[in-house]
Amino acid sequence: MGFLLACPNCGQRDVYEFRFGGEVHARPQFGASKKDWMDYVYRRSNTAGVENEWWYHRMGCRRWFQATRDTTNNSVLRTFWTDQEGSDNAVRARK
Amino acid sequence: MVLGLFRKEKMWGPHHKLKSHYDVVIIGAGVHGLSTAYYLAKNYGITDIALLDKTYLGGGNSGRNTAIVRANYSTPEGIRLYSESLDLYEGLSKELNFNMLLTQMGHMSLAHTDSAVNGVWKRAEINKALGVNSRVIWPDEIKRMVPALDTSQHTRYPIKAALFHPPGGAIRHDAVVWGYAKGAEALGAEIHPRTTVTGIDVSDGAVKGVRTSDGSFVGADVVVNSTSGFCSTITKMVGVDIPVVTHQLQACVTEPVKPFMSKVVVSANLHVYVYQTDRGELVMGSEIDPYSSYSPLSTFQTLEAIAGHAVELFPGLKNLRILRQWSGVCDMTPDYSPIMGRVEEVKNFILDVGWGTYGFKSGPASGHNIAELIATGKTPDTIKPFALARFDANAQVSERGAAAVSH
Ligand SMILES: Cc1cc2nc3c(=O)[nH]c(=O)nc-3n(C[C@H](O)[C@H](O)[C@H](O)COP(=O)(O)OP(=O)(O)OC[C@H]3O[C@@H](n4cnc5c(N)ncnc54)[C@H](O)[C@@H]3O)c2cc1C
Ligand SMILES: [Zn+2]
Question: Which ligand is nearest the CA of B81, by number?
Answer without folding.
Answer: 1
